[in-house]
Amino acid sequence: MVEKIKQGWFSNVRADVLAGIVVALALIPEAIAFSIIAGVDPMVGLYASFTMAVIIAFAGGRPGMISAATGAMALLMVPLVRDYGVEYLFAATILTGIIQILFGVFKVAKIMKFIPRAVMIGFVNALAILIFMAQVPHFIGISGMTYVFVAITLLIVYVVPRFFKAIPAPLIAIVILTAVAIFGGVELRMVGDLGTITQSLPAFLIPSVPFAFETLAIIFPYSISLAIVGLLESLLTASIVDDMTGTESNKNQEARGQGIANIVTGFFGGMGGCAMIGQSVINVKSGGRGRLSTLVAGVFLMFLIIVLGDLVVQIPMPVLVGIMIMVSIGTFDWNSFSYLRKAPKTDALVMLVTVAIVVATHDLSKGVIAGVILSAIFFVAKISTIKVKEQHNHSNTIFGVEGQLFFASVEEFVESFNFTIKGKNIIIDFSEAHIWDDSAVGAIDKVVLKYRENHNTVTIKGLNSASKSLVEKLAVYNQSNPKVSGH
Q1: Can you tell me the distance from the alpha carbon of 355 to that of 352, in angstroms, rounded to the nearest whole number?
Q2: How far apart are CA 230 and CA 483, in angstroms?
Q3: Which of 64, 199, 333, 462 has the fewest CB atoms within 10 Å around its CB?
Q4: Which DSSP state fits 461?
Q5: pLDDT tens-digit map of 363-372
Q6: Is the separation of the CB atoms in 465 and 481 below 8 Å?
Q7: pTM of the predicted model as reported, rounded to 2 decimal places
Q8: 212 in the same domain as 145
Q9: Which CATH number characterizes residue 421's domain?
Q10: CA–CA distance, 192 with 26 (Å, rounded to integer)
């Protein structure tokens, strides 16, 4: 236990602390922007980012991953805040956390194995595009100096690590260019231009909503949506960080941790949050690996707001834009272009559809769900091909069935038989097939009963144990004239 704590918290102290500081600086404009999207005060997003990061550092299942207020969840909150107010948002955030804890308890994280690689690639690429698109309003068409500062930031971020790695390059860029902007009197948009930052700690509160069934009826649809979207984004981000660091994480613990973090956030005046791919990538690329990096990100965020608030509002937006552009470039899977050429056309299409839907709707869950459904449809189409070969042996007519017999292949199965045969001994051999469902058994019934109508004797053989058990339970023909055999 002591070794596990040491490994998770203190095996990478220096790099974790520095990475956490970089993440905290990058969290501020994001949290303010997401607050504006949700229609709430900027401090609601900042408080959420603080509490989410601090709690998930202890309760999460993926060390080094950053959780905070996110755009995907902010979009879902808009109608609730607009129609009922921010207090209902706090109540919905608490309920979101409870639902996520239940998801973790019931091990819903297992759904991750049903997300195909093509969907994962599409998810990552869509996120990279969204991160870049979110930066565009902050630097396109503003001023010439904005472009200069973005370019210098990118230069620092990419060149400095080749010669100096003791301090993360993004942190160097923020400190140097903020100093240049302040002391050089350069006219640029600052963090403070996004919204007012109040230099105060979050306070415990109980949402001021009626404790009645009507309140539950209002917030539950939002909470279930927030819980699913937040968990989906968190688990996908955890998988990406797993790949980046070459380590495994506990997805069910992460689900429970997200739930605990959202409950605490709701009681401290924050909006719902989840894992952030952009900040998690910044953390990993800045050297952050342990839980300490996540804790430092949350604590330093609050330190920046309370102690250094007057300085924070003067950080030039082009510097943070440059860092986020670096994140989008690093997040995008550039091997996707060769993947599109080499992968099966169906997988390539799934990836493109996932990207297109996420980018069009700004909703990660819609893209991922669409990708999974499309993959399932293609998979069903692929395995639903079934072959029936007819052979004649003396007085016997043998039909050899090959493939998977289930609801999608039953029509082709039935149409493959020659029903003009009369007065013969017919053997249907399932040695190279598997019976999956009631539709398959119904199709076998149909074939057998049609042959019997023409005075044929029908024998089913070659069923494996699972198929035989299903047929014996459900088949109608089997009840009147049982001739079923296994291998």
Answers
A1: 5
A2: 53
A3: 199
A4: E
A5: 777 888 889 8
A6: no
A7: 0.72
A8: yes
A9: 3.30.750.24
A10: 14
DSSP code, position 417: S
> Could you tell me if 105 and 256 are in contact, meaning their C-beta atoms sit under 8 angstroms apart?
yes
Task: Determine whether 130 is exposed, middle or buried from the number of CB atoms within 10 Å of its CB (0-12, 13-18, 19+).
Answer: buried
Write down how long the chain is.
487
What's the rounded Cα separation, in Å, for the pair 473 and 440? 13
Distances (CA, A) of 51 to 73, 160, 265: 16, 33, 6
d(CA 443, CA 435) in angstroms, rounded, equals 10
H or E, element range at 149: helix 144-163
If asked whether residues 308 and 422 sit together in one domain, one would say: no
Residue 339 lies in a domain: no
DSSP letters of 107-135?
TGGGGGGGS-HHHHHHHHHHHHHHHHHHH
Do 244 and 156 share a structural domain?
A: yes
CB 132 within 8 A of CB 355: no
10-residue mean pLDDT series, the chain (487 residues): 74 89 84 79 89 93 90 82 90 94 85 79 84 82 88 90 79 87 86 76 88 90 88 86 86 92 94 88 87 93 85 84 81 85 89 90 80 90 88 85 91 90 88 92 91 89 90 73 48
Question: 16 and 109, same structural domain?
Answer: yes
Helix axes 169-184, 317-331, angle to 10 degrees: 160
How many whole angstroms separate alpha carbon 69 and alpha carbon 89?
A: 13
Residue 403 tokens read as: 């493939």
3-class DSSP state of 186: coil
DSSP 314-334: TSBHHHHHHHHHHHHHHHS-T
Residue span of the structural domain in which 436 resides: 387-486
Asked, for residue 106, whether it belongs to a domain, the answer is yes
Pairing of β 457-463 and β 396-405: unpaired
The pairs formed by 34-37 with CB atoms below 8 angstroms and a separation of 24 or more are 34/69, 34/70, 34/71, 34/74, 34/271, 35/69, 35/74, 35/195, 35/271, 36/194, 36/195, 37/71, 37/74, 37/75, 37/78
Task: Evaluate whether 330 touches 162 at the Cβ level (below 8 Å).
Answer: no
